[in-house]
Structures are given as structure tokens and as C-alpha cells.
Amino acid sequence: MSDTEKFLGFLGLCARAGKLQSGDEAARIAIKNGTAKLCIWDKSASARTQKDIESACKYYNIPYAPVDGDIGSRIGKPGRMVVVILDKGFANTMIKMLEI
Predict the structure, then answer these.
(1) In the chain, is it the N or the C terminus that has fewer CB atoms within a 10 Å radius of its CB?
(2) Backbone torsions φ then ψ of 22, nearest 5 degrees
(3) What is the pTM of this model?
């Protein structure tokens, strides 16, 4: 199993635990109100979405990473391109996995 597969599997676990929010608007809200501990987006998201989310993360000092792979399907919501992790423990583990 590749590192990407392990990461996406852990992302699914995080979703089942109810410790993430998905969708670009929900992500922006969580980033702005400080509940987001980590932001992840699919590299196939639109350039505007990627730029807007990255800018918000930088402004509010939230760690972030673009990843390859269909994150929407892994969390049970196909088509979603952006997720934020709400739990510090999950976020720290994922940050180590992504080496950011």
C-alpha cells in the first residue's frame, strides 16, 4: 500500500469519526472561525478554488496541502474537492504523513 493510499484511508477514518468538514464553502468558514486544524484539497480542484483556499490558509495560519487522489470518494461524498480536519490529533497525524 502506497503512502497516498494510507493517507486517503486515514482520511476516510477521520470522516467516519466525524472530525472533518468537506466542501469549499464549509472549509472557508472553518478556516475563518479557527476550527480548522488542517486543510486538504484535491489537486484536480479548479485553480480558483485552490488559490482561494491556499490564501485563506496562509492568512489564518492553517497548515494545508494539496493531494493527489479522489478525496471526495474516500470520505463518502464524491465530487468534494476540499476538506478541513477539525481534530488536532487527526491533524497532527496527517501532517506527519504528508510531511508538511
Answers:
(1) N
(2) -125, 160
(3) 0.91
